[in-house]
Amino acid sequence: MRKIFIRYWQIFRKPSVHHSLGLLSMGGFIAGIIFWGGFNTALEATNTETFCISCHEMENTVYQELQPTVHFSNASGVRATCPDCHVPHEWTNKIARKMQASKEVWGKIFGTINTREKFEQKRLTLARHEWARLKANDSLECRNCHNFEYMDFTRQSARASAQHSTALASGEKTCIDCHKGIAHQLPDMSGVKGW
Questions:
Q1: Is the dihedral of CA 21, 25, 31, 32 positive or negative?
Q2: What residues does each domain of the chain span?
Q3: What CA–CA distance (Å, rounded) separates 163 from 157?
Q4: Nearest-angstrom CA–CA distance, 96 and 103
Q5: Is residue 188 classed as helix, strand or coil in its secondary structure?
Q6: What pLDDT digit, counting tens, does each position of 87-133 carry?
Q7: What is the pLDDT of residue 41?
Q8: Helix, strand, or coil here: 138?
Q9: 94: which residues sit within 8 A by CB, 6+ positions away?
Q10: Range from 5-9, 82-86, 114-118 carrying the lowest mean pLDDT
Q11: What is the C-alpha separation between 122 and 130, in angstroms, rounded?
């Protein structure tokens, strides 16, 4: 056993051209920690409302629309920020969403949505993408805060209670099916089939 340990220790200490394998391994390990820490720090920095509204198009449109809603200010003091509704909490889903959002940043940089007018022209397309994403993930971001199982249907209006209990029983509908425009103004839906 001792001979095996000594043999591997000598391989570990044996110099490559200029540095030992141990030094290279340790350096790689430390570089990996620094990269991972930097990556996660950048990921969290871009996952804040401050970052989201740093573009004046977002601050002057959708952020202004959010402010009068119950998601922004309410009796309980619980507030939904941009990432709460638009970025999944699970790491792999978060990374996938961040990659999708890079296209939106691209639009900002290259001027396809860099003014209010251009944003309004693209609003229906952007909304459809977001609705499709929420439909595909069963409104995961909504369900991080709202859950059928914890709803007290007796304290809801008759219409809301009927709709929520039907959706719960059928399992076919998800939040975004009925709650489009809940926190932001709807785009111009004239000419849209089924609306």
A1: positive
A2: 1-11+21-46
A3: 10
A4: 12
A5: coil
A6: 988 888 889 888 888 887 787 788 888 788 888 888 899 899 999 99
A7: 93
A8: coil
A9: 43, 47, 87, 88
A10: 5-9
A11: 12
